[in-house]
User: Fold this.
Amino acid sequence: MQAPGWPGDPAPTQNPTWCLPAAFFDSLIAQQDRHPGNWRWDGSRLTLIDHGYAFALPGQILNHGDLVAARHGHGAAALVQEERDALGRLLGDPELLGLARFLLRDRAQALADRARRMLDRDEILRPGEF
Amino acid sequence: MIQVRFTASEFDTDSNEWVELPVAELVADGDELTISGPHADWISPEISILDPDSGERVTRADGAERWARLLPFAYRNGDLTVEVAEVAAAQPAGAAFHYSGGH
Assistant:
């Protein structure tokens, strides 16, 4: 199955509307390698691909976090209500909506810690803040 | 000299076969880098790549040939096929983006 659109287009980083949800997702999952080759853009829709480096632990390496950086760069790091609700649902489930069943325990804990920090600060985390 | 071929695959319903489509060709020669092909703009020379052996972030400034050898690790998703070859010489065809080292 092939994602729609093309790689290498920086357009999603240039308009906060296009990168807001993706940046939230990348911040939450501690995506370590989000560069323009790892998304597809078709002019109106952004598709994220390749999550081989994600669910990082604190202190681990960041290669690229372009969408998270873009959202911060646009001054749009503050959470929107749907994001607060999603984090609340995640933390309200002891199994982290199923993620705790397949993540290693320390990585599941790090995910929950990130979600709490995001809620406490009411914004997505900084690039590389895992 | 390192030559990297980027291709995509498309299913041809008439022939019932997968067809390989050229995307781009990248040549790294010393610190010089050339990207050519119908979608040369899809390939960013600015990305850094994680070296799975060392855990290092490798950029083009660390050596174009070293960086080029790691490109399969930057495009892991599978919708682009990335093939790396050591070659004696290469002549990229078509309009090419040329990047010189030492930026």
